[in-house]
Specification:
- The complex is a heterodimer of chains A (306) and B (376).
- The radius of gyration of chain A is 23 Å and the shape is globular.
- Chain A is an all-alpha fold and 306 residues long.
- Chain B is an alpha+beta fold and 376 residues long.
- Chain B is built from 9 helices and 20 strands.
- In chain B, the strands form 4 sheets. In chain B, strands 6-7-8-3-9-10 form a 6-stranded mixed sheet, with helices on both faces. In chain B, strands 13-12-11-14-20 form a 5-stranded antiparallel sheet.
- In chain B, a hairpin with a 2-residue loop joins strand 11 and strand 12.
- Classes of the chains: A mainly alpha (306), B alpha+beta (376).
- At the A-B interface, helix 10 and helix 11 of A face strand 6 and helix 2 of B.
- Chain B: Its EC number is 3.6.3.-.
- Chain B: This is Trehalose import ATP-binding protein SugC.
- Chain B: Keywords: ATP-binding, Cell inner membrane, Cell membrane, Hydrolase, Membrane, Nucleotide-binding, Sugar transport, Transport.
- Chain B: It is an enzyme of class 3 (hydrolase).
Chain lengths: 306, 376
């Protein structure tokens, strides 16, 4: 699902740019440009369809019976819409609690990632200090490490801090993001230095400059980073399944797996799995719809920034 | 008191490049000082060191009677207007102007009053709720000026504030800045201004004094008209004035009691008004300088030794005057004349032009310093 939403993010930004091009080239007759535009839209629509298909399959699967899901030939739409699947699914496990847990962990992790990444990126772009390049290189090098390599040392650290089987442990262990630092560094570099200098002359502290001058100009980037971080942590499966042992502390992904697989009935309740997954995705879709406007306005702003 | 004193100020970058070489400059309280020079002469670096945006490698910088080398920009009592306006794009004009005052924790009423007053004097009251991207370049620059004014600084710093404006707007904003300086002085406020530009018209029209910089060194500090009429060296002579002064190698020779300037095959006797100003007492090679307006069309009835015959290669008409270009002694020269009498001048026509020897300049060929004492 995270991949799907990231795909939508990218596709939407491409479409926004394409629309601007389209508006500025209105001609009455069919020209090569029209054909090119049509081909472009066709390609983008195909990409969009390709990305949205798993979601549609999941949604319609949640309304089918188990037999319909595996029917041959495959059919996208159910013969009858079994809305009751959702009621049964919600009654079969505490999915509301799992979604709340996921939301809580993802929200606090995202806030910490945004704060940490902004502070680090600001220091990297606006301060001159010894070892700055080396520090940045070291951070970027750590990006190359596979996540699985960090599991054991992170687990030991959490155990020593007494944070195993806690949401705080999950939040803290994901509170720093190399991608966040790199992404915001690139965004901050685009802000004209004279704005920072003007604020310094105006008497603002560095924290005030970051808060009042830099961050408001990077709303789109912050929203994008926030959304990506939120989705990643909301959907996170492997690391939470290692850290969390207590059932009512499960996040949604581990919760779905625990319930349907631990019961030993794997493969029997696919329509319920689809329904649970659809319920899990709803908060992400709402979040995306809210933030979409900010992201698109940010994309439009980039064209007129000095 | 808000005099600004630079004492042996130097700037050396970590890579070893020395941008500023021991500058000594005293800007008096209330003075409008213009720093002018070609690109890369370190005029902006000098201004940024005064503002506290660049570290000073060595030397002493004082504003008023306080040494400010290590003070942050906010504690130096300065306000700066940037070339690109540097308005906060997400804030309205009012918020831009109020931002600095809020950092000073001034009461809301005081902030409102200061902004209203500045907005009125700059005629931007109707723009106060607009954001920078809703304003024209000229309007943005006025808001940037307003942001500086409301802080009531001891010293105003301007970093090429008119560079991004079109020619017409540049003139009107230039006049606005000159008026602002006068008004601030008249109202008894601190009005020391340091203004960086590469445009000599701005320098000549705005500055009480002008500091000409080249390659991180001060070439001359003087009043605009003194710079024009008595350039201290060849660089200032060539830099100040448009079109630029004609400069050519020549020989200054003393024969008996008289001085002669020999250029090409011609030898002209220097008029007494110049010989009394000479700072040397023996013959030497020199740079001869003459401004375009001092090469005039020769009157047919009075042809002198200092008249030459040339072929005009280009005529540039400026409306109220014309520039004539011609080749002589293997280099290009330019003459500047009023419109009267020019009707007859055609491209490729032969003309007799006279050098006004009372207005020539002489510079040492090695040191490039002027060999003529100023008369003021």
């Amino acid at each position: 699902m995270g991949l799907l939403l990231k795909g939508i993010l990218v596709t939407t930004s491409i479409q926004a740019n394409t629309q601007q091009v389209h508006l500025s080239h209105k001609t009455p007759w069919l020209t090569l440009k029209h054909v090119q535009q049509a081909a472009k839209y066709l390609f983008l629509s195909a990409c969009g369809l390709f990305m949205v298909f798993p979601f549609l399959w999941m949604f319609f699967g949640s309304l089918k019976t188990n037999d319909e899901i595996f029917s041959n030939p495959l059919e996208l739409l159910p013969q009858h819409f079994h809305w009751y699947n959702f009621v049964e699914t919600m009654q079969s496990a505490p999915f509301g609690l799992y979604i709340f847990n996921s939301f809580e962990v993802a929200l606090f992790t995202t806030l910490l990632v945004l704060a940490n990444s902004s502070l680090f990126a600001y220091a990297l772009t606006r301060f001159t200090f010894r070892g700055k390049t080396a520090m940045f290189s070291l951070v970027m090098a750590s990006y190359m490490l596979p996540a699985a390599v960090t599991y054991v040392p992170s687990y030991i650290v959490l155990a020593k801090l007494g944070l195993l089987d806690t949401h705080a442990g999950l939040i803290l262990s994901n509170a720093a993001s190399v991608f966040g630092v790199f992404y915001l560094r690139q965004v901050f570099l685009k802000i004209h230095p004279s704005l920072i200098e003007a604020a310094r002359i105006d008497g603002a502290s560095e924290l005030k400059i970051l808060w009042a001058i830099v961050l408001p100009q990077c709303k789109a980037a912050l929203t994008t980073l926030g959304l990506i971080t939120f989705i990643t942590n909301y959907n996170s499966y492997m690391w939470p399944s290692l850290v969390i042992n207590t059932a009512d502390k499960n996040l949604i992904a581990t919760g779905i797996r625990q319930f349907f697989i631990a019961q030993g009935n794997y493969g029997l309740n696919w329509s319920h799995i689809m329904a649970a997954s659809t319920i899990a995705v709803v908060p992400l879709l709402i979040l995306f719809m809210i933030s979409q406007k900010i992201i698109l306005s940010g994309i439009a702003d980039n064209g007129i920034k000095e | 008191m808000a005099a600004v004193t630079l004492n042996q100020i130097e700037k050396t970058y970590p890579n070893g490049f020395q941008a500023v070489h021991g500058i000594d400059l005293h800007v008096q309280d209330g003075e409008f000082m213009v720093l002018v020079g070609p690109s890369g002469c370190a005029k902006s670096t000098t201004l940024r060191m005064i503002a506290g945006l660049e570290d000073i490698s060595s030397g002493k910088l004082s504003i008023g009677d306080k040494q400010v080398n290590h003070l942050p920009p906010k504690d130096r009592g300065i306000a700066m207007v940037f070339q690109n306006y540097a308005l906060y794009p997400h804030m309205s004009a009012y918020e831009n102007m109020a931002f600095g005052l809020k950092q000073l924790k001034l009461p809301k009423e005081e902030i409102q009053a200061r902004i209203d007053q500045a907005a009125q004097s700059l005629e931007i009251t109707n723009l106060l709720q607009q954001k920078p991207n809703e304003m024209s370049g000229g309007q943005r620059q006025r808001v940037a000026l307003g942001r500086a004014i409301v802080r009531k600084p001891d010293v105003f710093l301007f970093d090429e504030p008119l560079s991004n404006l079109d020619a017409k707007l540049r003139v009107s904003t230039r006049i606005g800045i000159a008026k602002l300086h006068q008004d601030l002085k008249a109202s008894g406020q601190q009005a020391t201004m340091i203004y960086v530009t590469h445009d000599q018209v701005e320098a000549m029209t705005l500055g009480d004094r002008i500091c000409v910089l080249n390659a991180g060194k001060i070439m001359q500090v003087d009043k605009p008209m003194h710079l024009y009429h008595y350039p201290a060296n060849k660089f200032v002579a060539g830099f100040i004035g448009s079109p630029a002064m004609n400069l050519a190698k020549a020989m200054l020779e003393r024969k008996d009691q008289h001085w002669f300037i020999t250029i090409g095959s011609l030898s002209w006797r220097l008029p007494d008004v110049l010989t009394t100003r000479l700072t040397v007492d023996s013959s030497q090679p020199v740079w001869l300088g003459i401004r375009p307006e001092h090469i005039r069309q020769a009157k047919t009835e009075a042809r002198h030794d200092n008249t030459i015959d040339v072929v005009i290669s280009v005529v540039e008409s400026m409306g109220n005057e014309q520039y004539l270009y011609f080749e002589w002694l293997g280099q290009e020269w330019i003459s500047r004349m009023g419109l009267e009498g020019l009707e007859h001048i055609q491209i490729n026509s032969s003309q007799a032009l006279t050098f006004d020897l009372t207005n020539i300049h002489l510079f040492d060929q090695d040191t490039e310093q002027s060999l003529l004492r100023p008369t003021f």
